[in-house]
Design brief:
With 495 residues, this protein is mostly helical. Helices cover 78% and strands 0% of the residues. It has 3 domains: 1-181, Growth Hormone, Chain: A (Up-down Bundle); 184-234; 243-495, MFS general substrate transporter like domains (Growth Hormone, Chain: A, Up-down Bundle). The protein is globular, with a radius of gyration of 22 Å.
Length: 495
């Protein structure tokens, strides 16, 4: 199960290493297409992870897990063989559907397989794989891409997924099914709203912020999110009940997790290109170059609970955002002359913030819901993480593209480094300087955004406690349950 988690989470990080190769490939993707190649997988993954868990409850967790691994392999194969950007995006979307079926059902299979006494340790091990997966995705992706082609990254995922499916088929137990209704309309509306929002963000620099496609994207996102809320409020058993966000602690912690992953994956997107273009690293060196970020996570994660008990919840969260936002702002001062040691030091600073944030905010989400809704909390954490990741890539990609195009000399065209280098190979220094300018601007925007969002998270947390004397508790059950007098069972909302 842990290997399955590492596979689907690692793919989120590994694709960033391939961005320079993709930009210079025969597909000739535009700057916005590069962002979509990264984000299509992530946004489909984010929006379908809760429906994927519901499908496992309804049709059998082992069967849905196997189907997810099959879809993941099929999507990776389509991506590896893609003759153009459209087919590549279709393959990425299919891979995201598979990942959404794999992640929640891997945990559900584990919880069914182990005795009650081992469940806390099992959950902790499974959760740690979501962090380790990002590291292994960078390192493993670097090893694969060192062969010279972006297609190899997707090709390598095919046998890995099939091997995982063979092990699941042989080892994983079959669990009971539950008659839980799946609402495909809600899932479609959530995916549509998220894609429309990203269209508005990503297409802005190329199409113009007042263009029809951008305005339609933002307007469509607002309408579809409203429609999703209406559908879920009327459902007797919603996949993700919007009433959950009445709980102040849950609401602020979800915003916090979204903000942390917003910053982390914005950094991943820029880091891969920065180390290759500005520092001259090879793709393997680039994969290894992100490791300083993970050192605090590996060494300090077990001490976070002790720190929280000593200084309090709000100060711990405030420190987390200060380190992440400050680290991103520090990284924004890097240029071609900055030694890697200085760059790595700011990665460590950012990693300290991530180390403080992840267990603390995850604990708030888990503690805001009754035990019977533990599955909802797990699914909500996965959704907010992936949604924040997609937004981070979209926002920094948008800022980078706009600033890069503006900083290029007038006689050098292109919206990507590869396009500019192809048009003016003798102006490589000017092109790289423009890229570094765009990357620094993007990191500054993201760093400030993380600090502002962190202030909102801490402010709401303090305000809710001052107003009520303690964190908000309780779960507002849907009208269907209130009318029937039914209470939820632990399996109804398992992710």
């Amino acid at each position: 199960m842990c290997a399955c988690v590492v596979l689907v989470v690692g793919m989120v990080a590994a694709i960033n290493l391939a961005v320079p190769m993709l930009a210079a490939s025969a597909l000739h993707p535009s700057a916005s297409a590069l962002v979509w190649i990264v984000d299509t997988y992530v946004i489909v993954f984010a929006c379908l992870v809760i429906p994927g868990g519901a499908a496992g409850d309804r049709f059998g967790r082992k069967g849905v897990l196997l189907a997810g691994l099959g879809l993941f392999a099929a999507g990776a194969l389509v991506s590896a063989l893609a003759p153009d950007v459209v087919v590549l995006l279709a393959g990425r979307a299919l891979t995201g559907v598979g990942a959404a079926a794999v992640l929640p059902n891997s945990l559900a299979v584990l919880l069914h397989a182990v005795p009650a006494a081992r469940k806390p340790a099992t959950i902790a091990t499974w959760a740690s794989m979501t962090g380790i997966g990002g590291v292994l995705g960078n390192v493993g992706g670097g090893l694969v891409l060192a062969g010279g082609s972006w297609r190899w990254l997707f090709a390598a995922a095919v046998p890995a997924a099939l091997a995982g499916a063979a092990l699941v088929a042989r080892i994983a137990p079959v669990s009971s099914r539950h008659d839980r209704r799946i609402d495909p309309l809600a899932a479609v509306l959530l995916v549509g709203a998220s894609v429309a929002l990203l269209v508005g963000i990503v297409q802005g620099p190329e199409a113009g912020w007042g263009s029809a496609v951008v305005v339609t994207g933002f307007a469509g996102a607002a309408v579809l999110f409203a429609a999703w809320t209406f559908v879920e409020l009327r459902a007797a058993h919603p996949l993700l009940d919007p009433r959950l966000f009445r709980i102040a602690g849950l609401r602020s912690a979800c915003l916090g997790l979204t903000a942390i992953f917003f910053g982390m994956f914005a950094l991943f997107y820029v880091n891969a290109s920065f180390l290759q273009y500005a520092k001259g690293f090879g793709v393997l060196g680039t994969g290894l170059g992100i490791i300083p970020l993970t050192v605090p996570i590996i060494l300090g994660g077990r001490h976070v609970a002790l720190l929280t008990r000593r200084i309090g919840l709000d100060p711990t969260i405030a420190l987390a955002f200060a380190f992440v936002g400050g680290g991103l702002l520090g990284l924004s001062t890097s240029d071609t002359q900055t030694p890697y040691a200085g760059y790595a030091a700011w990665l460590v600073v950012t990693g300290i913030g991530v180390t403080l944030a992840l267990p603390t905010l995850s604990g708030v989400i888990a503690g805001s819901l009754p035990p019977a809704q533990a599955g909802v909390g797990t699914g909500l954490q996965a959704t907010t993480r992936e949604f924040g990741s997609a937004l981070g890539v979209a926002v920094i990609g948008t800022v980078l593209t706009g600033k890069f195009a503006a900083a290029l000399p007038a006689d050098v065209g292109g919206h990507t480094v590869a396009q500019a280098l192809a048009a003016a190979p003798d102006r490589a220094h000017d092109v790289v300087t423009a890229f570094v300018s765009g990357a620094d601007a993007g990191l500054r925007v993201v760093g400030v955004a993380v600090l502002v969002l962190g202030a909102l998270v801490v402010g709401e947390s303090r305000f809710s406690r001052r107003g009520k004397g303690k964190p908000s508790q309780g779960f507002p059950f849907p009208p269907g349950r209130l009318r029937t007098g039914a209470t939820p069972t632990p399996t109804e909302h398992r992710p």
